[in-house]
Amino acid sequence: MAKTTAQIKILTIDIGGSHVKATLLNSEGKLLMDYEKVVTPVKATPDKLIVAIKTLVKDFPAYNKISVGFPGFVKNGIIKTAPNLGTAYWADVDFTKKLQTALGKPAKVVNDADLQGLGVVSGKGLEMVITLGTGFGTAVLLDGNLLPHLELAHHPIAKNKTYDEYIGEKAYKKAGKAGWNNRMKKVLKVVKTVFNYDRLYISGGNAERLTFKLDKNIKIVSNQDGIKGGSRLWLTQK
């Protein structure tokens, strides 16, 4: 017998450079439990990360499906790059298959900013999400549907610096709050010109460090806002 939407529980995992977080959602994106987290393993190989995830969720209630946001380029569930975890470990790894084997449930893996995007956008027009954390993540959606992922973080923004190097966590510590905010003003100007979005959403741990006035069509959102993407991933993506 097929499960009704009310019975569906989705394990949603957010993999970051410093922590792996997880929770359970219902089909409407409502949290069924508080976040739990573990430290991201040092030398975060696929096998080590699988062990960390299994440890994290071993006492979770039962779930039917798995959604994962991964910090890198993901194509059809296969990892292509993982700049904050080590691309040498991850290139061409079918992480979807590994998760399904390890946890015994159907899984979908997408870029972490894409997962956030599904969770926070209004679903109307061209919308963009950027995440400010260890690195710089981006997602672009049209009428609530993910467009092909672009790793804008790897594109040069200033001299020989990529977005990751220019406004990532290491850059914040080196440039200081004022210097980093000046850089963010430049980045937002470039993004606005290039994408001409209807709305921009800013998420991630460093979003709260922005000190200048944002345009009316820019909104700061929390990671918890974005977690709804874990359920929408199964509703909107084939």
Would you mind describing this structure in some detail?
With 238 residues, the chain is of the alpha/beta class. It is globular and about 45 Å long. Strand 12 and strand 13 form a beta hairpin. The model has no long low-confidence stretch (mean pLDDT 92). It has 8 helices and 15 strands. It has 2 domains: 111 residues, 2-Layer Sandwich (Nucleotidyltransferase, domain 5), CATH 3.30.420; 111 residues, ATPase, nucleotide binding domain (Nucleotidyltransferase, domain 5, 2-Layer Sandwich).
Strand element count: 15
Low-pLDDT segments: none
CATH superfamily of the largest domain: ATPase, nucleotide binding domain
Radius of gyration: 17 Å
* Structural class by sheet pairing and helices: alpha/beta
Strand content: 25-35%
How are the elements arranged and paired?
Layout: E1 10-15, E2 19-25, E3 36-39, H1 46-57, E4 65-70, E5 73-75, E6 78-81, H2 87-90, E7 93-94, H3 95-103, E8 107-111, H4 112-120, E9 126-132, E10 136-142, E11 145-146, E12 156-158, E13 161-162, H5 163-167, H6 169-195, E14 199-203, E15 218-220, H7 223-226, H8 229-236
Helix pairs in contact: 4-8
Condensed summary:
Helices cover 33% and strands 28% of the residues. The protein has 238 residues and is α/β, with parallel strands linked by helices.
Question: Can you tag this structure with a few keywords?
Answer:
single chain, 238 residues, alpha/beta, Nucleotidyltransferase, domain 5, 5-stranded mixed β-sheet, 15 strands, 33% helix, 28% strand
